[in-house]
Amino acid sequence: MNRSHKLTIGLLSTTHLVLDSYSSFLFQLLPILTVNLQLTPMSVAWLSPALMITSSLMQPIYGMISDRYLKRSMAVYGPLIAALFFSLLGSATSMPMLFLLVIAGGVGVGAFHPQGAAMVSRAVTSSGMERHQGLVMSIFSSAGTVGYALGPLIIAGAISLFGLDRSWFTVIPGLLVWAVMWRYCPPLEIREARADGPRLGEALRRVWVPLTMLYFAVVFRSAVSVSIQTFLPFQLQSSGLSDGERSLVLAGFIFFGGVGGFFGGTLADRFGARRVTLLAMLLAPPLLISALLTPGWPGWPGYLLLMAGGTMLNLPIPISVVMAQRLVGMGASTVSALMMGFAWGAGALMAPLTGELSSVYGFTRALLGVSLLPLISALLLWLYPEGPEGRRLRLGGLATSHGD
Asked: How many CB atoms lie within 10 A of CB 192?
């Protein structure tokens, strides 16, 4: 891998870290903004779906646009848009203004992801280092997860130092990465389809069975992750933990999820994508359930099990993206968006069901129930079809059988 390809991967991974830190500002600021703007629970309830729709569910649209027309613009200007609008959240003076800031910032976050993932993948394949594709995608994916975990700490520190109305100071990292991206980000060279080759739509239809299974495996995994991030703080609050203690537990869960994503690609390169993903989905439920049922919860034994469960839960994230890219073989931005954004967003929209369960059975029982969902993902991966579209499961480019 030459210096240019390393620069591309490092630049995009760093940008991913900074970008995703902005996307978690809202959840840290919501309690404060609810009081300052005198927001009703109904109005607050619309903010998270607005962010999820623009930053995640619309990623396939951004991916199709970047695949067809824009070679680098979304990757370059997405971080700038996110930084500008999310850094202004503390300056919002009304619910409509806050809503518009969330929507605009979400567009910036969503626009970067499919093209960024495609550019990282292309850098690996262009360098002839396909056998390390899982590792590289893990670095890119984990950088975003670490940034997401750091976001609440960054905005909390900025507010403590400068005040809520000067939250715009946090725009500085975003401006810096935008300037570097504008100067050094290479174009995304679109692979032209051969005259006798399939178009993207036809390529997707050919692999719709394994791609659908892979998609829903990601959806159920994502539903668990988002539900825990959303409702674990309430469960910990009912157990008597302070605001600071709750934020540290949640940050640890997110951070170790990023650690899992980092090692996931490396393990898949060595042992096979399907095998590693299936094992992770089988291990996540008992670890999460054991954490919540540990005597003396919340306490250190339970925390350690929770972090281990988060590691297993997020370990397959980069693997799923590369598996989908290799299934289709073209339209990398669109396929990346399907796995990273649309599947994550669909899983996140299942979180309100966890809220309904919590209102009936309590937070602990609701989280215990949702922790079983990765078993459905495991079943889908076990049934992953064997055939021309289901065999190339080792990320490094080595064809393996269905039972790799």
From this structure: 8
